Amino acid sequence: MDERTEHPEPELWALHRRLTAGTRFTDLTHAFRPGQPHFTGFTDEERTTAFDMERGDPFTTHRYSLVGQWGTHVDPPSHFAVGGRTLDRIPVTEMILPLVVLDISERVAADPDAVPTLEDVAAWERRNGPVPRGSLVALRTDWSSRWPDPEAMANRDADGVSHTPGWSAEVLRHLVETVGVAAVGHEQTDTDPGRATSAGDLDLERYVLGRDRWQIELLTNLHLVPECGALAVASWPKPLGGSGFPARVFALHPDPDPDPAA
Question: Does position 1 have pLDDT exceeding 50, yes or no?
C-alpha cells in the first residue's frame, strides 16, 4: 500500500506545498551593520566577536550593541505611547497580513518631499477594490535605492533641512480610522517627511503608534511586489517590554513563472 494513502498528508502541509509551488518570496529587509543610516540621535552599532573558530574556539559568536530601532525594524505602540503595547504584547496573528503597496515613487523621483494623497488611495481602490481591514499598508517611494548611503538617505540641503518623502496626515487618518489597518510601513527612516523631522515634528509617527498600530521602517524591495494580492510576514524577537527591534519582513506573492514540476 502507498504510504501516502495510508497516511494522508496533513491539510496544512498540503496547503503549504501548493502555496509555495506558485509563490515568490521577496525579502523586504535590509541587512543591518555598523555605519548604516539611522536616526541622528542614535549611536552606531558596535559588534565584537566573543568566540571565533578562526581563533581556535569551538564555535563563533558575536556580541551586538545597538538601539532597538536599527535597520529594518518594528516600532510598537509603546515606542511613542505611554502604556502602549510592547513587542511581546503584539500577537503572532498580526504578523501575517494582507500587504497593500501604495506607490508614489514616480512623484518622489520628481519631488523628494512628496507625500501620498487621498486620491492615491482612491486610485488604488479603483484598480483593486477596498483596502483590506487589518492589512499592512506600505508606502513605496523607491527611497531604499539610496541605502546604505547616509547622506543620500537624509538628502539634506545647504541649510541642513532633510528632503525625504513620508506619510501625510490625511492618508494615515483614513487608513487608521476609516479602513482599520493593522500596521503601516515605509522605506524612509521616519514616518514623517524630512522637512517635518528636521524641525523636530514627529506628529505622524506619534499618531500611528498612539492609535495602537505598529509600523515597519526602512523597508526595501517594494518595487518587486505587486500593489495588491501579496501577504506580508513580519516577525521580530520577543523582548519583555520591548519598544523596538530589528525585524525580518518578507512578502509572499504569485510567481509569474512558477515551476511546472513543483
Answer: no
